[in-house]
Amino acid sequence: MRHLDLRVVSQALAWARAGEPIWLCTVLSTYGSSPRAPGSMLVAKYSGDYVGSLSGGCVEEAFIESLQDGAFQQVASIVRYGESQEESQRLQLPCGGILEVLVERRESSDELITHLEVLEATLLGQKRLVRRVDPDSGRYRVTLDESAGGPAVAREEAGEQAVVLIRIGPALRMILAGISPVAGYCAQFARALGYEVIVCDARDDVRQDFLASGQAEGIEVQSVLPSLFIASGGCHEATAVVALTHDPRIDDLAMIEAVRTPAFYIGVMGSQRTSQRRAERLARSGGLSEAEIARIHMPIGLDLGSKAPAEIALSVVADVMRIYNGRAEPMVDRTRSQVSDVA
């Protein structure tokens, strides 16, 4: 679940608490190419204000226009965008893409507010839930997600009806363990991809320079050692922990704590030689097992021949997304690190 979807749920909750009706939209499926994956959300109100995205293009405009023309008055409905070639071109859907969207019209109520509070807490926490919506009756509820993974959106036959199952889990989070030029670019790339970005650094001067640089907009900055933040429960299963300072006092301690968490990605910058020395250090001084050390991506990032800070950051974020999306590692020569000792 992207951080953008957390913003959607938080805005939906704010509008519901203010007593306003909301239209909650969820991408159910995509055919062909689409910028937004199943499970992506948007919330709108009749005035045309909205938060979130369905396609990153004109589908949002088409939806708002239809809404203000009086459409979507039923409690729940499923709409398909881009079915005809003309509509696909008009809505600027790439490669003939088609979107199937669940649209829910919800009046403000105590039940809805509680439901949205549960969703918000889930996106901020450790547990995964399944949101079950009956498109015919509009009834909805949440249950614990007891499956080991699964698609973001599925359908379950219930008699003559098909109930939509929408998995809700913690929003994608990236913890940057320490501030560096590479970390600054990494924060910007991750934020653009919809991550919740948290930067941890206890060094006052470095942190103040980062805040003054303008790179911290939309990013949470914690004045604490990264290892302490991680140890305090800062990681969940949708968290990537990335250490990019080249300072073992910061990077090594962050790695020691990160391998004890359910983070899906743990990585630290350094050349092949530096990484080998770090692995020996983590085993000798940190007491990490071979299995724990194997969880750490070092050298970090895809081998793009990166040298400049922005290039290295790009390789790091690309590798994080590769792991999150379950892609196999490209065949590369790991004896030639894409990140040098002086990066």
UniProtKB/TrEMBL annotation:
Superkingdom is Bacteria
* Regions annotated as coiled coil: none
Instruction: Tell me the PANTHER family matching this sequence.
Output: ALDEHYDE OXIDOREDUCTASE MOLYBDENUM COFACTOR ASSEMBLY PROTEIN, MOLYBDENUM COFACTOR INSERTION CHAPERONE PAOD
Q: Which Gene3D superfamilies match?
A: NAD(P)-binding Rossmann-like Domain
Q: What name has this protein been given in UniProt?
A: XdhC family protein
